[in-house]
């Protein structure tokens, strides 16, 4: 392959720019050309496409967000949209496509693959909820952002002897809550993959107080319920005066960590290697520190993401 395209789609994640940069620089190194597609699949269908040079990706590795912009474009689920996208790529002479995004974006790449167009999906989402990879681009940055906020909230919780519920992102996955719960020394972690018993949560708070704990931090994954709802349930059992903090979109922004930049660079370069050899229909992952490629159809049809639930057990053992 001589000419490929790259787009970012779905929720933005820190490190997407580093991934685009790697795709462009590695392609140029291999004597290939890269076309950037603005606004994800929406821009692909509309033909919002331009050639990217080495300089277009200069001063980008450290920036959060995505300079190619992202969009939600549900119409891409229709065959009409997919065929139009392929037609646009043919018009520009693009022979393969790198799709950087979450599981929804992978569905777009899956659809193009089924039409015979070579795609490579790179996992880009703070949620870490993609099958076939231990980590996604953006996850490490997001958990460090959440951790900074949790450390600050802990100061207040301790000073006022308070119970805080901190709602974190993650869609239906508990990874962000698990990692930040362990890293912040949270008393309890509530995630969708594990049930919870509100009377037991209340009991744990009381026990902690009796042992002389000055604060209770509960990290709640958004996939369970929202923080205010959870606090109301707790306050209905006892008057804990629970405070709620919903971290929201601060979790998505910011300069990527070293780990996210390195991961994004490795994924970007690997995608180019594969497309250069004419290999598509793939998505990349890092498994036990090795960058590997999976069949994208098999990944979406048969694989499931599961967070590291050992962290849940660990937290129960060491947090009280
Ligand atoms: P995140 O989880 O971080 O928000 P995401 O990639 O899962 O990222 P989505 O909004 O679910 O975000 O998907 C991004 C885009 O992928 C959609 O707006 C749409 O253009 C495309 N897409 C999603 N589902 C499909 C599908 N079933 N078929 C084709 N394209 C799809």
Protein architecture, described:
The chain has helices at 16-29, 40-46, 79-91, 103-114, 139-160, 175-184, 198-210, 227-237, 258-276, 296-302, 310-318, and strands at 3-8, 33-37, 49-52, 96-101, 119-123, 163-168, 188-190, 216-221, 243-246, 282-287, 290-295. It is of the alpha/beta class. The protein folds into 2 domains: 3-138 and 256-302, Rossmann fold (3-Layer(aba) Sandwich); 142-253, Phosphofructokinase domain (Rossmann fold), CATH 3.40.50. It has a 7-stranded mixed β-sheet with strand order 3-2-1-4-5-10-11, sandwiched between helices. Strand 7 (188-190), helix 7 and strand 8 (216-221) form a beta-alpha-beta unit. The longest helix has 22 residues, at 139-160. The protein is elongated. It starts with a strand and ends with a helix. The mean pLDDT is 96. Residues 9-11, 40-41, 72-74, 76-77, 101-105, 107-108, 111, 125, 127, 171 line the site of adenosine-5'-triphosphate (ATP). It is an enzyme of class 2 (transferase). Residues 3-275 form the Phosphofructokinase domain. ATP binds at residues 11, 72-73, 102-105.
Brief characterization of the structure:
43% of the residues lie in helices and 18% in strands.
Strand runs, count: 11
Shape: elongated
CATH-defined topology of the largest domain? Rossmann fold
- Helix percentage range: 40-55%
Counting structural domains, the number is 2
Separation of the first and last Cα atoms: 57 Å
- Class from helix and strand fractions: alpha/beta
Helix-strand pattern: EHEHEHEHEHEHEHEHEHEEHH
Beta-strand fraction estimate: 15-25%
CATH class of the largest domain: Alpha Beta
């Amino acid at each position: 392959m001589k000419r490929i395209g790259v787009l970012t789609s779905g929720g933005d994640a820190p490190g997407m720019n580093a991934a685009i940069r790697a795709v462009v620089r590695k392609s140029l190194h291999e004597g290939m050309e890269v076309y950037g597609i603005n606004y994800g699949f929406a821009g692909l269908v509309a033909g919002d496409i331009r050639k990217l040079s080495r300089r277009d990706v200069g001063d980008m590795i450290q920036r959060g967000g995505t300079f190619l912009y992202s969009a939600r474009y549900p119409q891409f689920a229709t065959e009409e949209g997919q065929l139009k996208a392929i037609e646009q790529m043919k018009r520009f002479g693009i022979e393969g496509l790198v799709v950087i995004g979450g599981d929804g974006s992978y569905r777009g790449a899956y659809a193009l693959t089924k039409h015979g167009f070579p795609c490579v999906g790179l996992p880009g989402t703070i949620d870490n909820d993609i099958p076939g990879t231990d980590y996604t681009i953006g996850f490490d940055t997001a958990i460090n952002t959440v951790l900074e906020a949790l450390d600050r909230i802990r100061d207040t919780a301790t000073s006022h002897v308070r119970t805080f519920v901190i709602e974190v992102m993650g869609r239906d996955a508990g990874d962000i809550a698990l990692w930040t719960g362990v890293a912040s020394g949270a008393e309890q972690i509530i995630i969708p993959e594990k049930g919870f018993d509100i009377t037991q949560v209340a009991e744990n708070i009381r026990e902690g107080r009796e042992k002389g704990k000055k604060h209770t931090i509960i990290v709640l994954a958004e996939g369970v319920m929202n923080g205010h709802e959870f606090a109301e349930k707790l306050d209905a059992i006892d008057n804990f005066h629970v405070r709620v903090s919903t971290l929201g979109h601060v979790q998505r922004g910011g300069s990527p960590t070293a780990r996210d930049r390195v991961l994004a660079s490795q994924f970007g370069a690997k995608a180019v290697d594969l497309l250069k050899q004419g290999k598509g229909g793939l998505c990349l992952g890092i498994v036990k520190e090795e960058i590997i490629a999976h069949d994208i159809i098999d990944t979406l049809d048969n694989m499931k993401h599961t967070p590291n639930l050992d962290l849940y057990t660990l937290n129960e053992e060491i947090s009280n």
